[in-house]
Amino acid sequence: MNDSLFSNKLAAAILVTLLLAVGLPVIIHTFELLIEGHHGDHHYEESNPFDLSYVPYAKLVGVDAGAAAEEEVLSLGCMLAEASADRGARGAAICASCHSLAEGGPNGTGPALWGVMGRAVASVDGYSYTSALQGVDGPWDFEKMDRYLYDSAAYVPGTQMAQKIRKDNKRADILAYLATLGGSVPIPACEQKGEELAEAS
After folding, report:
1. Angle CA(87)–CA(144)–CA(69) in degrees, nearest 5?
2. Could you tell me which of 154, 145, 155 has the C-alpha nearest to residue 181?
3. Which of 5, 20, 61, 79 is most buried, judging by how many CB atoms fall within 10 Å of its CB?
4. What distance separates the 2 farthest-apart alpha carbons in the chain?
5. Band (25; pLDDT cuts 50, 70, 90)
6. Which distant-in-sequence residues (6+ apart) come within 8 Å of 192 by Cβ?
7. CA distances from 7 to 4, 15, 16, 18 (A)
8. Distance between CA 198 and CA 34 in Å, rounded?
9. 85 with 180: CB under 8 angstroms?
10. Number of other residues whose CB lies within 10 A of the CB of residue 38
11. Count of C-beta atoms within a 10 Å radius of residue 116
């Protein structure tokens, strides 16, 4: 008696065999990594191919200097050295919902950002700033803007802008892009911070 489903069964058997041959080693390797404790080894692999570790201001305030000295901690300048203004332009799309980024652009929900780097904080004509932001002295530089983008409400309590960009490389890209918008501010030097933190303890 001929089996009308024989060809389907044969194709299914071949497919299952191929799936096991290809997928089983991957599954076994994954379990091996989990058992050996290597699950977190490549934390920066996807978003930070250079394996740079930058400790932002909000973490430096309470960082254990001894622990920081044990690993290579790079400064904001090192992150900026690997940053991309092109990627930053895409990342800054979130800013464009409240801020004009074009030269001569008008104020929106937030002040116009053309020329922001190097400009005094809370100094755009015609924009009504909160008293909290008016209390921040000096110009917008890379470090100050980095702190603000990391957690604006924590850095300037009372500001109306509630923004948290926790990925270091994403903030560095946005900073690199903002620096192309007509402003002028020195780029921080790339230097290791581990020894400095250890000496400060």
Report:
1. 90
2. 145
3. 79
4. 91
5. low
6. 72, 73, 74, 75
7. 8, 12, 14, 17
8. 33
9. yes
10. 10
11. 23
Name the pTM for this structure.
0.61
Contacts for 195-201: CB closer than 8 Å, 24+ residues apart: 195/69, 197/60, 197/63, 197/65, 197/68, 197/69, 197/73, 198/65, 198/66, 198/68, 198/69, 200/65, 201/65, 201/66
Over residues 86-106, the pLDDT tens digits come to 999 999 988 888 999 999 999
Alpha-carbon 114 to chain mean position: 22
Mean pLDDT, residues 39-53 taken together: 39
Contacts of residues 116-119 at CB distance under 8 Å and 24 or more positions apart, as own/partner, are 116/140, 116/145, 116/178, 116/181, 116/183, 117/141, 117/142, 117/145, 117/178, 117/179, 117/181, 117/183, 117/184, 117/185, 118/183, 118/184, 118/185, 119/183
Long-range contacts of 151-157 (CB under 8 A, 24+ apart): 151/58, 154/58, 155/57, 155/58, 156/132, 157/132
Dihedrals φ, ψ of 24, to 5°? Answer: -60, -45
pLDDT in tens, 126-149: 999 999 999 999 999 999 999 999
